Amino acid sequence: MKMEPRILKKVEALVRKVKVVYVATANKGGNPHIAASEGLAFVGGDQIFFRAWFCLKTVENLQENPKLSLGILDTETQEGYQLMGEMERIEKGAILNGFSPEQEKRWAGYPQAEHQLFIRIREISPLTSGPHSDEFLH
User: Coil, strand, or helix at residue 4?
Assistant: First the structure.
């Protein structure tokens, strides 16, 4: 589906303002997981690029099931959007350098690599903590 440029500009402006984007994923079995991160950038059209130190469950889920939902919400104005899409590819970016055996247990389960997600947006709907329609914006 072709994304409306006017709506994309509003979403992009809101991301710049609030910075934090919520990333909802699920594994093949449908078990959900949500993460919050910064680093979302609009590449053009319906493509976005997300670079962050995603938690391990987010990366595992996307490798099993590339569908995801991104939530952006300004809690002061209640302006928000949900972006439904699909990860087209995932790449490792920066990798932690160095190993400290005495800290291994403390940091077990934390991401050791920054990941870059290339996402194609399929649909956009409004998002707010109050009553709202789940109708897609065109």
Answer: coil
> Token pair for residue 88?
């087209």
The CATH superfamily of 5-126 is Electron Transport, Fmn-binding Protein; Chain A (2.30.110.10)
CA atoms within 13 A on the CB side of 18: 21
The percent of residues above 70 in pLDDT, for the chain, comes to: 81
Q: Given a cut of 90, is residue 74 above it in pLDDT?
A: yes
* Cα 28 to Cα 129: distance, rounded to the nearest angstrom: 28
Q: Which two tokens stand for residue 137?
A: 């914006």
C-alpha span between 69 and 37 (Å, rounded): 13
Separation of alpha carbons 137 and 72, rounded Å? 15
Q: Which residue has the tokens 């997981």?
A: 33
* Phi/psi of residue 137, nearest 5 degrees: -85, 140
